Amino acid sequence: MKNIDALINKGCFAKLCREFVKYKRSIGYNYGLRQCYSIKYMNDYLSTKADNAESLSKKLIEEYIAKKRGESTASQLRRISIIRQFAIFMSSLGYEAYQLPLGIVKAQKEFIPYIYSKKEIESIIKIADQLEFKSYSPSYNLAYPMLLRLLFGCGLRIGEALALTLEDVDLDEGVFIVKQSKFNNNRLVPMSESLLRYTRKYYANMNFDSHIQRYFFPSNRKSKPYSQSAIYSQFRKLLKVAGIEHGGRGIGPRLHDARHTYAVYALEQMVQQGMDVYCTLPILSAYMGHRTVESTEKYLRLLPSEHMSIIDKMAPSYEGLFPEVSDYE
Length: 329
Fold this sequence. Notes:
- It is a single chain.
- By secondary structure, the chain is mainly alpha-helical.
- The chain has helices at residues 4-7, 14-26, 33-49, 58-65, 73-92, 118-129, 140-154, 158-162, 193-206, 228-241, 257-272, 277-288, 293-301, 309-312; strands at 55-56, 96-97, 169-170, 175-178, 187-190.
- The strands form two sheets. A three-stranded antiparallel sheet has the order 3-4-5.
- Helix 7 (140-154) packs across helix 11 (257-272) and helix 11 (257-272) packs antiparallel against helix 12.
- The two termini are 45 Å apart.
- The model is unreliable at 314-322 and 325-329 (pLDDT under 50).
């Protein structure tokens, strides 16, 4: 973790900015390198515009949040969020600091994820099963079929899946152990019986040597995992072979949509079994590693029309929360 005292050490707002980062970390926020550089950028700007840190004026804040040429709305909103939180922090310490009202800049229309049909999932996985062995990447034809089953069958983020080590896969209990994921959380992710069978087969076929290989998805450099960029590139090729049209960057369908797809089918299973969705959402939220139930509820609001029946039906039950994934044997 970046040493914040060394990173932010100049300017009249530097001390307050360092205290702000330390405060955020103390209450559980994962202020890592990216967030620290955002704070540094804010400090550098404010310190060049003000003579002291006794106050934070409306004029200075509005100058700081003004949209830059070529900047996306999302980037601008991140800057707005940070300086608003910083102003609240300053106010709590007794300083005079203008607090931006919420909604001062409207977010862009929310992205609608692509929900893969069960037929499309089966097609993608079957094509992955036909990948041929490559001498320069010995695990290539084994890793992709396993990885795709994991993403569609457990809803992991791609970064979480690629970070799995051999120690993180419990083949006796049928559980993946996800460590230090988004929001610095750890969680246990049970797998279905069909996925457990396939995972055991993958483990046996990989013939892992724990003295050389640490990662569950090792690249041709055995001590390192596959990179996300390599996975994205291969996934685009699989989509093309499967006849699933890709609209380009920012349009999709994306690899991350496998996670959305998992959530939709898990929710569908709940509804079909008569479960009260809003009582069981906390379970799904914990399973998927969301920080709040609201994050999981977002999947309901983003559903395509053919899945809207999920919202219309509610009643109690628990069995079958985790969708089965065929091993296509």
